[in-house]
Write a structure and sequence with these properties.
Elements: H1 7-16, H2 21-29, H3 33-40, H4 47-72
Helix pairs in contact: 1-4, 2-3, 2-4
Amino acid sequence: MKSQISTKDLRTLKSKLPHGSIKKIAEELSLDQSTISKVLSGDFFNEEVIDAAIKIVEERNSKIEEWKNRMSNL
């Protein structure tokens, strides 16, 4: 099954992942790191991988906003 998400969007998602995220997703989902990379490059489709990647980016963005808010209060 091919992803309904464009390859461009998947690559953008992959580029926003913090260092070590592919390994973290692979460990969480018991998949090979190469599988995670292939999903995020648009070669394979795996909904769980995409969800996990989006969650990591959202958590990172939330943390960055938290830091910005805390720093503005210094």
